[in-house]
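HOLO CASE FILE
Compound: zinc ion
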Amino acid sequence: MHASILRILVLASALPALGQNIIYETAFDSDLGWTLQGNDQASWAVDGAPAIYRSPPFSLNFNDGVEIGGPCCISAGTADSPVIDLSNVSGATTLRFRCWYETEDTCAHDVREVQISNDGFATTLFEHCFDGECAYQSWHRHDLPLDPAWGAISVRFAFDTVDNMWNGGRGWFIDDLLVRECAVPSSFCLAAPNSAGAGGALMGYTGTNVVSLNNLRLHATGCPPNQFALFIYSAGQAQTPLGDGFLCLTSPIHRLYPLAQTGGGTPSHVLDLGSPPSAAGQISPGETWNFQCWYRDPAAGVAGFNLSDGLGVAFCP
Ligand SMILES: [Zn+2]
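Model generated. Tokens follow.
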């Protein structure tokens, strides 16, 4: 099948399950679109020799069918993905793949590296050598953030034995590779005027809504300075008058302690998905949660407190 036809089929099946769009995926049932290189001793291949894979029948692997080259020589090679176009991507984007290895585990002796380029690897935008961080002889997962500003990228797996010692291992195996985009968080509900301005306080964020990266930092802008604030969240959306503004959440409401300080007007909270305030507040992939910031505003008037608008976040795996 022609590569462009396969790409259209991949895009057509990109249903927004789990709040994400699949941009590229392969289970390495074939080497279609991949450029595989090695030397006389060993090479990258998509095959079942040796028969180590996460999804049958094949994986992408570096060896000579048995081992990574034996005691005679130095072996090295690269496996380059087809072009993966991120130009039209707007949400948090990640590369996920599964990894299994039987080589030396430090970059000083056996280099196992992933690289990203958008110019055919004349230059690299990102490179990382797995240095003692992978589980040995056990399938495990890697998640790497990708920057959509990189445009049309290619992913490279590079292996190098560096020396001719300890080259009897079965090699490095990659399977079930996926590039996907997580849905962009969206604002809802109303930000009522406060003592700092007519626009009220607006929810925002840095980091991503990718659960496996666990790096979402919530903030609110436009709060009155030097007051206490509290970030809260719920499963549902509402718009109910409360204080000087509106409650945008439904019961039950989960509170993210400790209390934040508005400081210059921008309180923030690092959301640790591993430590929810209660079991009922556990955030899991595929779920949508709604966030809001409550803050004190004694200078404004009667109630003494107000709330930001809401931020709806669909969390991806
Ligand atoms: Zn690994």
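CASE NOTES: Residues 214 and 272 are 7 Å apart (CA to CA). The two ends are 30 Å apart (CA to CA).
CLOSED: yes
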